[in-house]
Amino acid sequence: MDIKDLNKSQLILLAILVSFVVSIATGITTVTLMQQAPPPVTQTINRVVQKTIETVIPDTTQKVQTIIIKEEDLVVDAIEKNSRALVLVKGAPTEEDKDGPTLGRGFLVSATGLVLMDGRIISGDGKYSASYNNVTYEAEFLGKDKNGLALMKLILPKDSKIKSFEFTAFSDSDKARAGQSVIALGGVGLDIARGTILGFGEESLVEAPPVAEGDQPAGGLPVLEKIKTLNTNLTLSRSYSGTPVVDLDGSVLGFVLIRDSKTIIIPVNFLRSFIDNTQIKG
Fold it and tell me: Across the beta sheet with 191-203, what order do the strands follow?
């Protein structure tokens, strides 16, 4: 049969057959030559083939980088973040102390200068100041409650270079869990204590009225109101009263009050309503 007598379909099949035979012959020839070629030549050819495959089919797998964060680094960051929110509260100047006597610590809870502190160290009357970031500001007393919480506000002078104060955000204390690490910051300088949450408890911070012997009211002594507290293994000194307890994220979990050498930590969720109500009254 003459090739001129083939139709289009037959010509295509013939071309495919020829191409197939040529490919097989080329492969056999290539393998034979590769086996006979010296090693340097085969290594060069293999590298060219590998690069060609990488170009045609790129590697789409993504490398996952694992970052290990040490607890020590979290502690350092939490301390640095919260130490700037601590203030040192002072009373009115005296002849002996022109800067005013140091009363205790408090900490900023808003950018507007609200300071939460232990209400036992101030009477509510008189003149107060507070040292923040090595600058002394006039402090206005706003109020305190029966549990011993007090709220003050730092007054920015008109020529102040800053327009707001650094403060630390509150966490959700209801989500605190036993075994969680916490940090307490306090002292006239800056003292640090690390501890662990043990759970929740209840304490009465309201002092019972004195009752003379033999003058007990009918029905017995009144039942004192108790509030929720955060139990930890922290045993803190008096200098920590009025300071925060924070988690490893640097958020405030609780507020320290020292009563009769006992460490009491009030969860921040209880503090929110006190702060809101007191600043409105103030």
Answer: 227-232, 191-203, 181-186, 244-246, 252-259, 262-267
Q: How many residues does the chain have?
A: 282
Domain boundaries, given as residue ranges, for the chain: 73-154, 173-205+226-280
CB 192 within 8 Å of CB 76:
no
What contacts 168, CB < 8 A, 6 or more positions away?
81, 82, 85, 107, 108, 109, 244, 246, 250, 251, 252
CATH number of 173-205+226-280: 2.40.10.10
**What tens digit of pLDDT does each residue of 117-149 get?**
999 888 777 789 999 988 999 999 999 888 889
The answer to whether the beta carbons of residues 149 and 255 sit under 8 Å apart is: yes
* Residues 145 and 103 sit within 8 Å (Cβ to Cβ): no
Please state whether beta strands 227-232 and 244-246 pair in parallel, antiparallel, or not at all (unpaired). unpaired
For the whole model, what pTM was predicted?
0.69
Phi first, then psi: give them for residue 189, nearest 5 degrees.
Answer: -85, -115
CATH of domain 73-154: 2.40.10.10
- Residue 149's DSSP bridge partners are 118
136: region left, alpha or beta (phi > 0 left; psi from -120 to 50 alpha):
beta
